[in-house]
Specification:
Length: 191
């Protein structure tokens, strides 16, 4: 998921949880996709990965210092892009809601920012030639393992912390089938 989408979800969640703001639809994050790869990708800041990958290609960092510099730029971009996008999303939410902005909530935005930082570090550690390989020959294995574990835990943590609105249970939310004279008998019901 992009940092832009994370910031939009943060603003939307604040608006939904703020009793002063009326008629704001919740942004539906796609946490918990159909596959492990979808779950992993949900929290990786796509914009920063694009810049990181481009810088890696442009600089071709051969030295440890160059690898750490490119990693540092990518890591620093995560909060910068998140905060700027968050501010723009709040401004747009205010414009769409007749000037009423949702109450700011660090309880929403800080965990999402932390998730984005963790996802970026794990992704970078899983890439060949990353700066962590200067510290350990097993860095790629640890990075790959971190991506898999975070892909499992981040969606659960988002749900547990109230950062993702639960999708209604289709069985519980489905209205009972009925006819004007009452419920429709099932096939196993005696007639």
């Amino acid at each position: 998921m992009s940092v832009t989408r994370l910031a939009q979800i943060a603003v939307s969640t604040e608006a939904v949880n703020d009793p002063a703001v009326e008629h704001v639809p919740a942004a539906r994050p796609a946490y918990g996709g159909d596959s492990a790869l979808n779950r992993i990708a949900e929290f990786i800041p796509a914009e920063v990965i694009g810049v990181y990958t481009a810088l890696w290609g442009l600089t071709d960092p051969g030295s440890a210092a160059a690898k750490w510099a490119v990693f540092g730029v990518g890591l620093a971009l995560v909060p910068v892009v998140f905060v700027l996008t968050y501010m723009v999303s709040r401004r747009r939410a205010a414009a769409a809601g007749a000037g009423v902005r949702p109450e700011r909530s660090l309880r929403v935005s800080l965990p999402l920012l932390a998730f984005a930082l963790l996802a970026f570090v794990a992704w970078a550690a899983a890439m060949p030639g990353n700066p962590f390989t200067e510290l350990s020959e097993h860095a790629l294995r640890f990075g790959g393992g971190a991506v898999l574990v975070l892909g499992l835990l981040l969606p659960m943590a988002a749900e547990a912390l109230g950062l993702a609105k639960s999708a209604p249970d289709p069985i519980e939310s489905a209205p009972a089938e009925s006819t004007p004279s009452g419920p429709v008998p099932s096939e196993s019901s005696p007639s």
